[in-house]
């Protein structure tokens, strides 16, 4: 199980490979090396490069291909060895030495060594020419970690300050130096392993490899013949010989494909529950409920004060930026979001109102004691009136003091029907208080591009993945973060509250006492709830319907249904 930074969320040679996998495995295991797992995704990947990824359309695939030094037990959340077999640290907690497992090979058969670890950190993550969210995670007190190869199997990390979640952070994917060094040297890494890459060129340490990608149709993965992990009796893993992600235009199409039997699993929405749950026995599948989604769902407004260097125009019109930057405006919107209605109508009652930046699904670091905004349209209208908005011409749309209509575009991704429904409810309620909201439905990767590169948007309804440690949301919450959505990559904090959050994350990252760390992260959640850079809506229940055809399926509260995919087989 990888603990990543937060991401934006919306999956011939074959027979020769089978022979390679079967060789040397116990007789009882040979019957397990068969079949395929078919899943659905609603967006094409943006690339196959995990260092550059900021969206789940990419990380859903790369999670199968790449691994890190450590991983996390999905039941206990304890950090356990992965590509590293052991480690120790100096007394001051600043120097960490890791020993790699013996005989590890990349998927192209070349040795995996400590030089690959150094390369990933020194040449990729800490390379200023390569935009990536991992740098937000591993920059401590404004300084970088130093990574050195002691010998081929030993690598040393020297930290500038103590870093409490350090072991957990080393789930960071590692990339091969022998494949990518030239691309870095020639400053072409940011264009490497794009969606036009040859599958054979993408080399990892994970259980699977990219076998085929047909844009708009499917992504096919096959077993890594050199995968290092073994089964309980020394047999080769993985068992399943093919993973196929079918690219569907919407979740509704995914639901139909699951019901007709062409998908093996389906990540459910609350609205799907009345249809799927009664059919468990007849259709031979099981619905697993793993509690609240660990991520988040929200509406956010563009407060970016920057100027587009190509057009020499502001990313967002000055008068709109002024509205969005006013806390009264954001609190007005918060009072107009009917979370109860969203849960009842969109999620069929299978959801949880979200008020805090951390989900109750993350466990101990969740803070329930934050400012909450009751659904109250009168309170919403009063805040807008206090800002000087009035309906001067009686058309139902408010105007500001200069006579400009309170109008903006609200974007979300068209392939997620549930999110579209949430955005529609929000638009309806905002119009009831005098706003004119133009709902714009776009493809997911187009939406990501607006957020992370063009900055061409007014408001967006979207979500983020979650983590069991708030530190891994640094790329969102630090003012300089790559995913500091409303005003990203600030050279210095734009507001006092952002400066306070920066300091909280700095202090919490160096605090080893869990109680004190929680106190820090409680503070940040309270600040976010007061300042509302994002306005939360409602969390879904984590529901997955899975065909009753798999052995070794061990759904975990933090790892999901297929966290141990390499061990799962078709019965």
Tell me what the structure shows.
The chain is an alpha+beta fold. It folds into two domains: 14-264 and 549-570, Periplasmic binding protein-like II (D-Maltodextrin-Binding Protein, domain 2), CATH 3.40.190; 296-540, Dipeptide-binding Protein, Domain 3 (Dipeptide-binding Protein, domain 3, Roll), CATH 3.10.105.10. It has 19 helices and 23 strands. The chain has a five-stranded mixed beta sheet. Helix 12 runs antiparallel to helix 14 and helix 18 runs antiparallel to helix 19. The longest helix is centred in the last third of the chain and has 18 residues, at 514-531. Mean pLDDT is 92; it is low at 11-24.
Low-confidence stretches are: 11-24
CATH fold-level topology of the largest domain: D-Maltodextrin-Binding Protein, domain 2
Oligomer: single chain
Shape: globular
Please state the average pLDDT score. Answer: 92
The number of distinct structural domains comes to: 2
Structural class: alpha+beta
Instruction: Report the span from N to C terminus.
Output: 24 Å
Tally of extended strands?
23
Radius of gyration in whole Å, from Cα? 24 Å
Q: Report strand %.
A: 15-25%
How many distinct helices? 19
Instruction: Give the CATH superfamily of the largest domain.
Output: Periplasmic binding protein-like II
Do you know the CATH architecture of the largest domain? 3-Layer(aba) Sandwich
What is the CATH class designation of the largest domain?
Alpha Beta
Main beta-sheet annotation? 5 strands, mixed
- Helix fraction bin: 25-40%
State the strand order across the main sheet.
18-17-19-15-20
